[in-house]
Amino acid sequence: MAHSVLFDQDQMYGSGGGPSQSDGLEFYQTQYADPAASAGGVGIHGSADEFYASSYGAATPIVERSWLAAFGTGGFPNEQPLLEELGINFQHIKSKTLAVLNPFKPIDTAIYDDSDMAGPLLFILVLGTFLLLSGKSQFGYIYGVGLMGTIGIWAILNLMSKGGIEMMRTASILGYCLLPIVFLGSLGLAVDLKSAQLGPAAAIIPIAWCSYSSATMFVTVLSMSEQRLLVAYPIGLFYTSFALLTVF
To answer: Which of 164, 174, 145 is nearest to 241 (CA)?
Structure first.
């Protein structure tokens, strides 16, 4: 059976057609205020950051959306720069380069804990560019001699030392100590080292410089002070090969 309920509006609301005061219905005014209006007129037309700041009293972090942010710390909070994520530390590069330029200065072994290859690759590229400008295309020989020489010296050092050394650290030290040979290559831009009388003689100083710096670093890192001459001998042959490529 279907039931229907009919409401008499006159009976419910009285003769006036509205809610009577005797029904006990009371309406209260709330203390709610529009946060947009209290924030100085920031409404739906304002930005999301402004509305968040006006509502909760704190602004959201602004993310810099550009390709330059990848090379700095302006991207996300506590984000490392891209160069540090790739293992490129300019402070270590500077310290290692200065250690090569002044081999008589005491060496801080902490800077050789990482196998930084940014500096060696840069020095090899610069040396190859100098030789190319001198009319010698030696890029293949440079990489070949560098690879085979690094493997050989790494094997010798691991046989001579107790603790041993990683191959990448060996390549890093040998690459940084190549800097005097780079200076010899830059000299070849002004003087023809092959035809000049002082060409072979000028190569002796860079070879001795590279060998002494590299041997000092290896001896310090591996604690092989009593085997300095044994370490310097294969390293001297290694840098002599680069000097021959540079001169001839």
So the answer is: 145
